[in-house]
Amino acid sequence: MTTSLPILADISNVALTNALQATINNKTKPLGSLGRLEDVALKIGQILGSTAPVLDQPQMVVFAGDHGLTARGISAFPSDVTWQMVENFLAGGAAVSVLAKQNGIALTVVDCGVKRDFLAGLPAGSTRPGLQVRKAQGAELGAADSSAQTAMTPAQRDEALQHGIDLVKGLPGNALLLGEMGIGNTSAASLLLSRLAGLDIAVCTGAGTGLDAPAVQRKTEVLREVLALHAHATAPLDALAAFGGFEIATMVGAVLQAAEERRVIVVDGFIATSAVVVAHALQPLVLQRCVFAHRSGERGHEFMLQHLGVQALLDLGLRLGEGSGAALAWPLLQSACTILRDMASFASAGVSEKSADPVAAH
């Protein structure tokens, strides 16, 4: 492999964890009374290495790519929707666009392998605000049909991984929120889950963008064919090349680089978590840096979370993708940090702590 992937250090620190827990416990509240918010505060403090963490310049990155497997009828929408939605993101009209704007999150859309030239007709060297074009060589038509060949060549996969690494190196801030767009990418995510978690494909396959029950059954049969064709692609990077897609591979590189830089990684739904599943198979310590925003309504997502041994913050029945769940969870992360930094302690507020013995009633 030509790409040198980041090697993650263990960021666990007993002294810091104890200091964070003591800070949380000494706030003016009963022990544990802020529930999961306390877990988030502890996690962010561990990632950022501080008992008073500040989330700075959050970056939502929407990774976009097309999938040749859509030719097999595995999606309710035509593949043109991928590029149309990229334009919608850039115009500020998509769900993730308005949620990112509401929450002060910078939004970048990355063309990892969309069947569209978003710079066509513009002078050479031109750019468009909010868009980065980082296509691997040969990715102009998206990932290949994985029911006929590997979705990506090893060289293309490595280039996509490197693009993700380089992308994060160029972004400010200490938080990366993961989003994606790609008609057919629930199939790629289902295939990765099935292969890397050892689950039957029927368990991993859902409705995606809105298939009915017979269509889900047909999709499952196609994905079973794909798994059989690539039966020897069992190593994480081999599975990634076999099943795709370019947006997932680029996201894997971005996740690993963000983890190396100790950014808080806010993981969206099914597709984003599939990238973390691959990253985790390569570097298990990546989970130290991840906050899982929500449990998707897509069938396989719960199994992904179980495979990783993690719990998501929200469960709103979302299955839109785009990073919408990550954007919705963002205010909770901000609140967790605010609690750590600004909420009074018993001592500073002059509030009595819980008695060792229950106070007798008079």
Describe the structure in brief:
With 362 residues, the chain is of the alpha/beta class.
What would you note in describing this structure?
The chain has about 350 residues and is of the alpha/beta class. The chain has helices at about 15-25, 35-50, 80-90, 95-100, 155-170, 185-195, 200-205, 215-230, 235-245, 245-260, 270-280, 300-310, 325-340, 345-350, and strands at about 60-65, 105-115, 130-135, 175-180, 265, 290. Helix 5 crosses helix 10 (about 245-260) and helix 11 (about 270-280) runs parallel beside helix 12 (about 300-310). It has 14 helices and six strands. It is about 45% helix and about 10% strand. The chain has a six-stranded parallel sheet with strand order 3-2-1-4-5-6, sandwiched between helices. It is globular.
